[in-house]
Design goal:
One of its GO terms (molecular function) is epoxyqueuosine reductase activity. It is an enzyme of class 1 (oxidoreductase). Its EC number is 1.17.99.6. With 376 residues, the protein is α+β, with helices and mostly antiparallel strands. The chain has a domain of 261 residues. Helix content is 39%, strand content 12%. The chain contains 15 helices and 11 strands. The strands form 4 sheets. The protein has a 4-stranded antiparallel β-sheet with strand order 1-2-7-4, sandwiched between helices. Strands 10-3-11 form a 3-stranded mixed β-sheet. A hairpin with a 5-residue loop joins β5 and β6. α1 packs across α4, α12 packs antiparallel against α13 and α14 runs antiparallel to α15. The radius of gyration is 23 Å and the shape is elongated.
């Protein structure tokens, strides 16, 4: 029996869109880039800190001989409108059921099918593993890097979720040289709202809106307006990419946003309890960050809408128990109406009990009335 062909056939039966195979040699091609990121301090808190673990599969599974790399498309068509008065955008990556659940289930099914014909040692990961999954995908022949550093598959484009299974099986690798196909196109570089794409195949994750909507670190003032009304994730560089036109659409109904329609009701998000949040949004991939971070993003979105009708809602949040919420609320109020906001923030500072929040409000007033004025 040809084990590789058997695995490919079973993956199709499980409805896995893409499959490829790689050996377990270290991912040396990406080491220089990882060193660059470390030197430039543009690593994120979500990345494995041990560089060797990021490139050497055997540090995760010492018996590793082959890696099965899988991909499923989340490029679903959906255009239903929502009637939310104040709405924030969600990335397609969190439209439907949490992709970690979907892809892990398919990987578990594939593992069980393989176990029916041979016993083997394995470890599998979706997004949370130490290795650079995009580099594994490239090595396994799943696709090539776009200039936006996404992996682009010939049939499904770049809107794909990637998972991998480290195994001690001996399987022929699909490793082959896949030419980069972006040529002279630089639409993604031009479209990136924050300039996170600092050049072809050069990506600064700390400026990426997708990262900004997830981090607990303080978001720089100058990047907040560029986030627009995005509550979780960002699809800008992928939606403009020509390689995502005329590709096969996702067949996975789990990713159809029947519950949220691709948006969140901002007014609701700012007022619901943690329990209500988990009940309504706990199924989404983006819910892993919890209500507070998404609530912060909603406040930024309201600030960027610059609708004065939102001011009463925001002013009420200056009494929120969470200091971070009070700080971002001050920014949003000033961004909507800095003159009126100055009075509101000064009153809030008078009753504010935490010195750090007071200092932040002072910095915001200086930023809006000194720095921004000088830049006009």
């Amino acid at each position: 029996m040809d084990l590789k062909e058997y695995i490919i056939q079973k993956s199709k039966e499980i409805n896995i869109d893409i499959i490829g195979f790689a050996d377990c040699k270290p991912l040396l091609n990406i080491k220089d880039y990882l060193i660059y990121k470390e030197k430039e301090n543009i690593q994120t808190e979500f990345e494995e800190k041990d560089m060797e673990k990021r490139i050497d599969p055997k540090l995760t599974l010492p018996s590793c001989k082959s890696i099965i790399v899988l991909g499923i498309s989340y490029n679903v068509d959906y255009n239903e409108k929502t009637n939310y008065k104040l709405k924030g955008k969600l990335s397609k990556s969190t439209w439907g059921l949490d992709y970690h659940i979907v892809l892990k289930h398919k990987m578990e099914q594939l593992v069980e099918r393989i176990k029916e014909v041979t016993d083997f040692e394995y470890k599998y990961f979706v997004d949370t593993g130490p290795l650079v999954d995009r580099e594994l995908a490239k090595k396994a022949g799943i696709g090539h890097y776009g200039k936006n550093c996404s992996i682009i598959n010939q049939d499904y484009g770049s809107l794909i979720f990637i998972g991998y299974i480290l195994t001690d099986l001996i399987i022929e690798s699909d490793e082959k040289s896949i030419e980069e196909k972006c040529e002279d196109c630089n639409l993604c570089l031009k479209a990136c709202p924050t300039g996170a794409l600092e050049g072809s195949y050069r990506f600064n994750p700390k400026k990426c809106i997708s990262y900004l909507t997830q981090t607990k670190e303080k978001i720089p003032y100058e990047l907040r307006p560029k986030m627009g009304t995005k509550i979780y994730g960002c699809d800008t560089c992928q939606l403009i990419c020509p390689k995502n036109k005329d590709v096969s659409k996702s067949r996975h109904i789990e990713f159809i946003p029947t519950n949220n329609k691709g948006y969140m009701d901002l007014e609701e998000l700012l007022q619901i309890s943690n329990r209500e949040f988990k009940e309504k949004y706990g199924y989404m991939a983006g819910s892993w960050r919890g209500k507070t971070i998404l609530k912060r993003n909603a406040i930024i979105a309201l600030g960027n809408m610059r609708n004065k009708e939102s001011l009463p809602l925001l002013i009420n949040l200056l009494k929120d128990t969470n200091p971070m919420i009070r700080e971002y609320t001050a920014w949003a109020i000033l961004n909507i109406d800095k003159d009126y906001g100055k009075t509101i923030i000064e009153e809030a500072m008078y009753i504010e009990k935490e010195e750090e929040v007071k200092k932040e409000m002072e910095c915001l007033l200086k930023y809006f009335f000194t720095n921004l004025s000088n830049n006009k």
